[in-house]
Amino acid sequence: QVQLVESGGGVVQAGGSLRLSCAASGRTFGSVVMAWFRQAPGKARDFVAGITLISGSTYYADSVKGRFTISRDNAKNTVYLQMNSLEPEDTAVYYCALEQRVSSGFSLPTATHYDYWGQGTQVTVSS
To answer: Under 8 Å CB-to-CB from 53, ≥6 apart: which residues?
Structure first.
């Protein structure tokens, strides 16, 4: 089993910045991909950013490109999401996800393809 714990959420004014952290523990050996998703009230859980843990390749939703940066520290089993130029539309609960079994049909932006999830951290951006 793998456990994921997010931290770093909070309340910030529009234009501000926050950095989220996601620490993985347990049987993390063999983990391939980690990603951030977000879910606003009454909406679906949407992909934000993802990173492959070996090569460090990164992927972003169009809505956050140029504003958010995902990174990883493999020694600490931790993934970060640096969020700059925050907008009220970024308000949501942010979830960290991890996947270890990546087959040819794996879709990085698809929430249902991930086996492990954190509990979420609230990000609120005021206008």
So the answer is: 31, 32, 33, 34, 72, 74
